[in-house]
Specification:
Blueprint: H1 4-36, E1 38-39, E2 53-54, H2 58-64, H3 69-98, H4 105-113, H5 120-131, H6 138-145, H7 153-156, H8 158-183, H9 187-195, H10 200-227, H11 232-237, H12 247-258, H13 261-285
Antiparallel strand pairs: 1-2
Helix pairs in contact: 1-13, 2-13, 3-8, 3-10, 3-12, 8-10, 9-10, 10-13, 12-13
Length: 292
């Protein structure tokens, strides 16, 4: 049993790491808040040493009244929602299939998980040039084989294309988490249900799916945090055109146009607020499974 002295020693040893972690998180956040109330133009030769022009909430007003602000928020939520639906649904299916005994099971699992370790820019370039190119892409050749006109995916179906690309990247993560959860399921429950004559769908609905609820919750929460800041895939594929401009890409674009770090910082604060709203919503809807 831990004594008071051992607990104090543990806190003392953990203190440097905690202070470093808090500094790593709080310093950029404080600087973002500070810059958001100023007019800071370092790309035009301004520097902090020369002083910053305090503008109050002007940057916030300029950013939120932009005609692209609400469409970018909507696009962000559509991409996040689409990717979550695909990765959770297919992740459950793949996890169940990978849990079945098969020849070369380990190799198959490695290939399924491998896309998660590919850099977003690389995977986006692969999809753009090897699969979705309307002239030489693999999908174009398949369309031509069946006598159909190839689709210009990144212009005619830009949002579905981005959702497909990002889902391909995050599907291995969801599959890995869900596979781990399935492997912890007590097989005796399934065997008992099978002996009682329960069909496959009912066994899945009443035994497997409830058991996966906590894992699904974790997948949704973690993926949402990262997907709200999606940028690289859009930069590489559409450049924000064809209705694919997310909030993070809009921040990048506004900084380049105005060369005002303060305006971009105000957009960053809006992104933080959006992330917290979505996180609170998800915790209330599905996060209760963590306490079950």
């Amino acid at each position: 049993m831990a004594t008071k002295a051992s607990r104090s020693a543990a806190r003392l040893m953990m203190a440097p790491a905690v202070v470093l972690l808090l500094g790593w998180m709080l310093v950029p956040l404080i600087m973002t808040l500070w810059f958001s109330f100023t007019k800071y133009l370092p790309m035009r030769g301004d520097s902090i040493a020369n002083g910053l022009d305090w503008v109050g909430f002007e940057n916030y007003g300029r950013f939120v009244t932009s005609s692209s602000f609400w469409p970018s928020v909507q696009t962000t939520l559509i991409i996040v929602g689409g990717v979550l639906v695909i990765t959770v649904a297919l992740g459950i299916v793949l996890a169940i299939l990978l849990d079945q005994p098969m020849w070369g099971q380990g190799v198959v699992r490695i290939f399924v998980i491998a896309p998660f370790f590919v850099m977003p820019t690389v995977s986006a370039l692969v999809w753009k040039n090897m699969f979705m190119d309307p002239v030489n892409g693999l999908l174009a050749h398949i369309w031509k084989f069946f006598g159909a006109t190839p689709v210009e995916w990144l212009s005619q179906a830009s949002l579905p294309s981005l959702i497909m690309i990002v889902s391909w990247q995050w599907l291995p993560f969801a599959t890995l988490i869900l596979l781990t959860a399935i492997q912890s399921l007590d097989s005796e429950q399934l065997e008992a249900a099978e002996m009682d004559g329960a069909p496959v769908l009912k066994r899945f609905w009443y035994i497997v799916l409830p058991h996966l609820s906590r894992a699904v919750t974790i997948v949704i929460l973690i993926q949402t945090i990262f997907l709200l800041s999606i940028f690289a895939e859009i930069f590489v594929t559409t450049g924000g055109a064809f209705g694919t401009k997310t909030l993070s890409y809009l921040i990048f674009q506004r900084v380049l146009e105005s060369q005002n770090i303060g305006l971009g910082s105000a957009g960053g604060v809006y992104a933080i607020i959006l992330a917290n709203i979505v996180a609170i919503f998800l915790m209330r809807i599905v996060g209760k499974n963590l306490d079950a």
